[in-house]
Amino acid sequence: MSEITPDKVEAHGFTPEEYDRVLDALGREPNLLELGIFSVMWSEHCSYKSSRFHLKKLPTEAPWVICGPGENAGVIDIGEGPDGRKLAAIFKMESHNHPSYIEPYQGAATGVGGILRDVFTMGARPVANLNALRFGRPDHPKMKHLVQGVVAGIGGYGNCVGVPTVGGETNFDPAYDGNIIVNAMTVGVADQDRIFYSAATGVGNPIVYVGSKTGRDGIHGATMASADFGDDIEEKRPTVQVGDPFVEKLLIEACLELMATDAIVAIQDMGAAGLTSSSVEMATGGKTGIRLDMNQVPCREEGMTPYEMMLSESQERMLMVLKPGREAEAEAIFRKWELDFAVIGEVTDTQRMELVFGGETVCDIPLGPLAEKAPEYERPYLSREDYGIWANVEPLGALPEVTDIGADLLKLMASPALASRRWISQQYDSQVGADTLQTGGDAAVVRVHGTRKALAMTTDCTPRYCYADPYEGGKQAIAEAYRNLCAVGANPLAVTNCLNFGNPQRPEIMAQFVGCLQGMGDACRALDFPIVSGNVSLYNESKATGGGSAILPTPAIGGVGIIEDHAGVMTMGFKADGEEILVVGRKCAGSTAELGQSVWLREVAGAKAGSPPSVDLGHERKAGEFIRSLIDNRRVTAVHDVSDGGLIVTVAEMALAGGIGAALEAGAISAGKAYFAEDQGVYAITVPRGTGDTVISIAAGAGLVCEKLGTTGGDAITLAGRPEGADTIRCSVSLSDLREAHQRFFRDWMDS
After folding, report:
1. For residue 731, what are the contacts with CB-CB under 8 A and spacing of at least 6?
2. Could you give the angle at which helices 735-751 and 143-161 cross, rounded to 10 degrees?
C-alpha cells in the first residue's frame, strides 16, 4: 500500500479535522484502502453528516407504518388481500443528479436500477416507477442533449426490466443549467410476513455475493456525488456506473425465488459506495463484525485491487447473509438465472471490518467510527428573516391587467412550464404488468395484483416556492402530494422524499434546507402523512463554464395512498356535456394575493416576485377529506386540484383530458388575474346536472366554500360575465387551439 500524503487525504475529501478523527479511530495511520473506505463512508452521500441532525425531527411513525427510515426503503401496511394475506407497500425515492449531468443516459438508467434494488431487496416485487426531473433553460446549449439522454435512460432501463413507469414531473429553470436533478422512485408490494432487512446476525454465517461481476466503473461515485461541480466535469465520467437492465431483471427473479425459502438472514443491495457501504451497513445493523476474502469477489477485469473492489459501484449486485448450510441451495438458484454467486466472507463478533487479500489482512477498521460515529455537523444557517434579506425576493407590487384571458391561457399552456410532457411519457412503458389503471392524472394508480385494491402515487415539489419562502415551500410540497392523492380517491398514507439542495456549508443554503424540513414536518404532522424513507442530495452546485451556482431548493416528495376498491378511481377529464363545474375550497374568491411566484407572473408578466401562496394545513386536510367523501359516495364525475397556472389552467387540463369544452361564468371571481392565482387546497370538480346545489350545501356543512363555475360542453373554453354590472370579460379558446399550444413546445424543440 502506498504512503498516505496530505494530497491524498485532500483528494479523498477529508478536512484536516476529519482526518484526525480517522487517526484517532484507528490509533495509527490508515493505508490507502482504509482511507478510501473512510472516504466513501464519511461522504455526504453516505453519512448524511450535514443533514442527520435535522432529519431526526421529521415525523416517521403511524399505526400503518411497519418500517420507517433507516432501512433500504419504507414499509407501510395496506391491509389484506382476498386470501387473507397481509400486504405491504414498500417504496423509496433517490437521486442520481451528478452522474446524470456527466453521462445522462447511464446516470439516469442506473438511478432507476438502484432504486429498484432498494425495493426488491426488502422482498417486494416492484410494481411502478416514477421520477422527478429538473432541467435548466431549454435554450442552454447542453440542455436538449441532457433531456434526451435522461429520458432515454429512464425508459431504456425501466422498459427492459419490465416495471411500468407511471408518473413523474419535469420542470425547467435556469438554476439547473449546471446541475440537473434526476430523482427516481419505485413502489413495490410484498407480503408482510416476507419482508427482509439488512442487519447481519449469526456469528459464522456465510456472506455471499450475487449478481454481476465487479468492474472499475463507478469508483468513488459516492464521493463525486458529495461535491459540487468544477471545471473538471468530463474527468469525472469514469465515476458514472454502467447498468444492464436485463441482468437486473434476472436479479429480481432470483432474489424473489430465494426469498420464498427461509435461507436468507439479511440482504443489502450494493448501491452508493458498493461493497463497502453494503457490508458496513449490514454489520452495523446487526451489531456484529464482518470478514471478507477479497480474492473471492467476482471481478470482470484483471488485476483489480481491494481498493477498486471495495469502492466500485458496478451495478446489479447484492450482498446476503445466509443460514449455514444453505449455500448450495442459494447457488443453484442464482446459477439457474445465469448470475454470479460467491461465498466471500462470514459474520464475526468483532464489530470490525476485516479484509483479507492474498492471505494477508489489508484492512482492519472498527465499524463504529465508519457508520454510527461518523461525523455529524450542525451547520450554521440564516434565520428566516435574514434568509429573506439574502433571497431578496421583490414584493408583488402592482400587477398588469389581464386584457385577454384566452391569450394568456394559450401562452401558459405553450410554455415549458406547462406544456404537455407526452414526448417524455410516450417513451416509457406504463402498461407492462397489466395493472396500471391511470397515468397522467393528479396521481398514477396501479392495481394491487389479484385484489380490489389500488395504490396511488405521485411526485411533487414547487422549487420556486421553496426559494422564496423555504418554510411555506416545504409545507406546500407535502400538501400538493396529499392533494393529488385525494383527487384520485386515495387515502394518503406515507411519504418518501429526495432532498436536493446546494452546498450546506453556505448558511443561506442550510437555511433553505432547515426551513423546508420544518415546513415538511409541520405538514406531515397536520395531515397524518409520515415520512418513511428518503434520500439527501447536497452540493448540487456548479462552477463549471456555462453553469449557475446552486440549484433551487428542491425537496421532491413522493406520496403513496391506498384505494380500497379500484372501481372508484377518480380521473380529471370531463365526462359528458351539461355537467356542472364547481370549485371547492377557494378561500379568497376574487383575490390576486396568491399570484406571488405563480407561473402566470413569470411567463406572462415576466416577474419573479411576491411570497408563495400560503398553505392552511387545517383547510388542506378538511378539503382533502371532503373530496374523498364525494368520490366515495359517487357524487363527482371528475376531480383536479388547482396548482401551476391557477384555476383556468386546471379547467383547461380537464377539458383536454376529456375532449369536452366548458362554458364558465365569472361569478364571484371579479378579477381576470384571479383565474391564474395558485390558491392552495382548492379543487375543481364536475357533478351530474342538477346536483350542484346539493354538493354546495354539503360543503357548507363541512365548513368549506364551494361555488359554481360553469358547465361542461362544446369544443371550446368560454368565459362570460362579471358580477354587479361591471365591464364584461370574455374569452373563447377552442380545444384544438389549446391542444396545439399544449403540444407545441416539446415537438418543436426536439425537431429543431
Report:
1. 404, 405, 406, 407, 409, 717, 718, 719
2. 100
Strand runs labelled E in 695-738: 706-712, 716-720, 731-734
* Burial of 752 per CB tally in 10 Å (0-12, 13-18, 19+): exposed
Query: Residue 542: helix, strand or coil by DSSP?
Result: strand
Cα dihedral value 16, 17, 19, 22, nearest 10:
170
96 is catalytic: yes
More confident of the two residues 58 and 274:
58
> What's the burial of 56, exposed, middle or buried (CB within 10 Å: 0-12/13-18/19+)?
exposed
Task: Output the pTM of the full model.
Answer: 0.94
* Integer Cα distance of 134 and 170 in angstroms: 6
Tallying the residues shown for the chain, one arrives at 752
Q: What is the greatest pairwise CA distance in the chain?
A: 93
- Per-residue pLDDT of 641-651, as tens digits, reads 999 999 999 99
Please give the single-letter amino acid code of residue 558: G
The 74-80 sheet, strands edge to edge:
65-67, 74-80, 86-95, 181-191, 125-135, 165-172
Among the listed residues 12, 54, 96, 640, the single catalytic one is 96
Q: Identify the structural domains of the chain with CATH numbers, from first to last.
A: 570-752 (3.90.650.10)
Cβ atoms within 10 A of the Cβ of 17, count? 8
Phi, psi of 651 (to 5 degrees): -65, -40
Residues contacting 104, CB < 8 A, separation 6+: 145, 146, 148, 149, 150, 152, 153
What's at 172, amino acid-wise? F
Structural contact between residues 564 and 528, judged by C-beta atoms closer than 8 angstroms: no
Between strands 554-563 and 454-460, the pairing is antiparallel
pLDDT tens, position by position, 164-176:
999 999 999 999 9
The pLDDT mean for the chain works out to: 92
| CA separation for the pair 685, 164 (Å, rounded) | 29
Residues with Cβ within 8 Å of residue 145, at least 6 apart in sequence = 104
Distance CA 399, CA 592 (A): 9
Catalytic residue, candidates 12, 45, 640, 742? 45
